C-alpha cells in the first residue's frame, strides 16, 4: 500500500518541532551538566573558529560588534531552514528527514568533540532526541485513515502532540539556560567584592577631562567600556572554581586559587586599553582603574629561565595571547593580573574573575580575559590572532581623535570648539595640534596629565566662517615623535593616520 503523503505544512512542522526538541534537550543537559555552552552555541563557536580571517574581518567591519548577534541569528535561520527541508523530504517516508537531522546533529557533536565532556553529552543528547522525536512526530502526523472523521481525529492528535512538544522543548531550554546561568557567577562576584582588599587608587586630578567641551569622561564607566572578544556567550567562571597555573620555562611552577592570588601585593592604576581593530577616529578605546597583582611579581616568584621570550596566556574558552617577557619584566611597566575594575570585581564581560592588562600593548596581545593559564615560553608558539595573520607583537600606536564637532554636524560659525582625545601609551602626550582646511597647525590646550599610560583630553577653539570645513588633529609624544599622516589599515598591527572631521558652519 502506498502511504498517503503528509501535507507540506504538517511535514515542515514535524521537522521544526523535532529540531526544537533536540535543542531544548541539549540545552537542558548542558545546564544539568554545567556545560559552558549549549550545543547551539558550540556550533556557533566552531563556525567562528573555522571562518577564514578575511571573512571575519569583513564581518566585523560590516556589523561592528553586533557581529555575534548577526551570527547567532543567521545560525537560527539556517537551522530552521534545514529543519523545514528535513520535514519536506519526509512526506512519504520518515527516514530522509531523520537522516538530515542526524547528520546535522553529528556536525554539532563534532563541534564539541574537542571541548569538555559535558558539552559532548549535551550535543549527543540533542542528536538522539532530534532523530527519535522526528520519527515519533512523523508517525503521529501520519494520515492513516481516509474518512473525514478519522482525519479530523488525526489532526487533533497532531495538534495536541505538537503543542506538548513545543512546551516541553521551551521548558527544557529555559530550565537549562537558567541552570547554566545560575551556576553562581553573580553570587561569586558579590562574595569576591567583599574579599578584595581595598587598594587606594591614585586620585584622578580635577581637570583631567573636558567633558563640557565634548570629550569622554576621563574614566569610562564599566557598562560603557568597549568590549571585544571572540566569545559568543560570556564565559561564566566562578572565582571559587578558578585555578591559575603559571608554568613552562620557570624554576617553580605556581598554581593559585583566587584567594591565594589576592593575598599577594595588589596595585591600583589607571590604564587606557585600546583594540588593534580601532579605526582612526574609532571608539574601541576606554580607560579604567584596574586593581590587581603585578605580573612582574608573579614572574619573579616563579623564576623565569634564560631563553624564555613570551608569556603565553590562555582563557577558559581557549583564546590565547602572547606578551613579550621583556615588557612584562620592566620594573615600571605596571602589567597586572587584574581582579577589579573601577572599584568593583571585574564584570563578566571584561573577564571575571581574572584578566591581564598591560599598559601600552593592544588588547589582543596582552589583555586575556577569563585567564586561567600562563606559560613562559619562546616565540615559537603563535597566539590566536597571530595564527590569523596579525602581528606577533603590537605596541599601541600614538593616535588622536576628534570628538567635537561630530562628523556632518552643523555648528554656528565664529568661535568653534574642537575637542578630543590623544594617547601615546607608556610615553605620554606632549602636544596635540589642530588645523582647519589645510591651514596652519595650532596647539590645543591639554587636560591635566594623569599618567603616561592613559589617554589625554584636549580642546581648542577655531575661528571659522560659514561653510563646509574639515578639521584634523595630530599628537606628539614625549620623545618628540609626531603621529604619522600615513594611512594604514588596522591589519596587521593597528591603524595610523590623522583623524579628519567634516562639518558645516552656519552663519
Ligand atoms: N578571553 C579573551 N580575552 C580577550 C579577547 C578575547 O577574544 N578572548 N580579546 C582581546 C582583545 S582583541 C581586546 S581589544 C581586549 C578587549 O577587552 P575589553 O573587552 O575588556 O575591552 O580583550 C582581549 N582579551
Ligand atoms: Mo582587540
Q: What does this protein look like?
A:
The chain is 35% helix and 23% strand. The protein is α+β, with helices and mostly antiparallel strands. The strands form four sheets. It has a five-stranded mixed beta sheet with strand order 2-1-10-5-6. Strands 3, 4, 7, 8 and 9 form a five-stranded antiparallel beta sheet that branches. The longest helix is centred in the N-terminal third of the chain and has 34 residues, at 148-181. It is globular and about 90 Å long. It starts with 7 loop residues before the first helix and ends with a strand. The relative contact order is 0.10. The model has no long low-confidence stretch (mean pLDDT 91).
Provide keyphrases for this structure.
binds molybdenum atom; alpha+beta; 11 helices; single chain; five-stranded antiparallel β-sheet; binds the ligand Nc1nc2c(c(=O)[nH]1)N[C@H]1C(S)=C(S)[C@@H](COP(=O)(O)O)O[C@H]1N2; 507 residues
What's a concise summary of this model?
The chain has helices at 8-32, 39-50, 53-63, 67-89, 95-112, 117-141, 148-181, 185-195, 258-262, 295-302, 325-328, and strands at 243-248, 254-257, 267-274, 285-294, 310-315, 320-324, 336-341, 344-345, 355-357, 371-377, 399-404, 410-412, 414-423, 429-436, 442-443, 445-446, 456-464, 467-477, 500-506. The protein has 507 residues and is α+β, with helices and mostly antiparallel strands. The ligand Nc1nc2c(c(=O)[nH]1)N[C@H]1C(S)=C(S)[C@@H](COP(=O)(O)O)O[C@H]1N2 binds next to loops.
Amino acid at each position: 500500500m502506498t502511504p498517503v503523503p503528509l501535507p507540506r505544512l504538517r511535514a515542515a512542522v514535524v521537522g521544526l518541532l523535532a529540531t526544537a526538541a533536540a535543542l531544548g534537550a541539549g540545552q537542558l543537559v548542558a545546564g544539568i551538566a554545567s556545560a559552558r555552552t549549549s550545543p547551539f552555541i558550540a556550533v556557533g563557536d566552531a563556525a567562528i573558529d573555522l571562518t577564514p580571517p578575511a571573512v571575519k574581518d569583513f564581518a566585523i567591519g560590516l556589523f561592528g560588534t553586533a557581529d555575534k548577534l548577526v551570527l547567532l541569528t543567521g545560525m537560527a535561520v539556517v537551522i530552521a531552514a534545514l529543519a523545514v527541508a528535513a520535514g519536506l523530504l519526509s512526506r512519504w517516508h520518515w527516514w530522509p528527514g531523520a537522516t538530515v537531522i542526524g547528520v546535522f546533529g553529528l556536525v554539532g557533536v563534532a563541534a564539541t568533540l574537542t571541548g569538555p565532556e559535558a558539552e559532548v553529552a549535551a550535543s549527543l543528547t540533542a542528536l538522539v532526541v532530534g532523530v527519535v522525536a522526528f520519527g515519533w512526530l512523523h508517525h503521529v502526523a501520519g494520515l492513516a485513515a481516509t474518512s473525514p472523521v478519522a482525519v479530523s481525529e488525526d489532526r487533533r492528535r497532531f495538534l495536541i502532540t505538537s503543542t506538548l512538544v513545543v512546551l516541553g522543548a521551551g521548558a527544557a531550554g529555559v530550565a537549562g539556560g537558567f541552570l547554566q546561568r545560575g551556576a553562581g557567577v553573580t553570587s561569586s562576584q558579590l562574595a569576591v567584592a567583599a574579599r578584595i582588599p581595598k587598594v587606594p587608587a591614585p586620585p584622578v586630578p580635577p581637570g583631567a577631562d573636558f567633558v563640557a567641551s565634548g570629550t569622554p569622561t576621563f574614566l569610562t564607566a564599566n557598562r560603557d567600556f568597549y568590549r571585544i572578544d571572540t566569545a559568543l556567550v560570556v564565559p561564566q567562571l566562578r572565582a571559587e572554581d578558578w585555578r591559575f597555573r603559571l608554568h613552562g620555562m620557570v624554576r617553580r611552577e605556581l598554581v593559585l586559587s583566587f584567594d591565594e592570588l589576592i593575598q599577594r601585593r595588589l596595585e591600583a592604576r589607571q590604564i587606557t586599553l585600546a583594540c588593534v581593530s580601532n579605526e582612526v577616529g574609532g571608539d574601541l578605546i576606554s580607560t579604567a582603574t584596574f586593581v590587581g597583582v603585578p605580573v612582574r611579581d608573579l614572574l619573579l616568584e616563579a623564576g623565569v629561565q634564560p631563553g624564555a621570550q613570551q608569556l603565553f596566556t590562555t582563557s577558559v574558552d581557549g583564546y590565547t595571547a602572547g606578551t613579550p617577557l621583556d615588557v612584562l619584566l620592566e620594573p615600571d611597566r605596571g602589567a597586572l593580573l587584574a581582579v577589579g575594575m573601577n572599584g568593583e570585581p571585574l564584570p563578566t564581560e571584561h573577564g571575571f574573575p581574572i584578566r591581564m592588562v598591560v599598559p601600552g600593548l593592544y588588547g589582543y596581545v596582552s589583555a586575556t580575559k577569563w585567564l586561567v593559564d600562563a606559560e613562559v615560553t619562546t616565540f615559537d608558539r603563535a597566539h590566536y590572532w597571530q595564527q590569523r595573520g596579525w602581528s606577533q607583537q603590537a605596541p599601541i600606536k600614538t593616535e588622536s581623535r576628534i570628538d567635537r564637532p561630530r562628523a556632518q554636524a552643523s555648528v554656528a560659525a565664529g568661535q568653534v570648539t574642537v575637542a578630543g582625545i590623544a594617547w601615546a601609551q607608556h610615553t605620554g602626550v606632549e602636544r596635540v595640534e589642530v588645523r582647519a582646511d589645510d591651514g596652519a597647525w595650532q596647539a590645543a590646550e591639554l587636560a591635566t596629565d594623569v599618567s603616561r599610560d592613559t589617554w589625554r583630553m584636549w580642546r581648542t577653539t577655531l575661528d571659522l566662517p560659514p561653510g563646509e570645513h574639515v578639521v584634523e588633529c595630530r599628537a606628539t609624544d614625549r620623545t618628540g615623535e609626531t603621529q604619522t599622516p600615513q594611512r594604514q589599515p588596522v591589519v596587521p598591527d593597528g591603524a595610523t593616520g590623522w583623524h579628519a572631521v567634516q562639518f558645516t558652519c552656519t552663519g
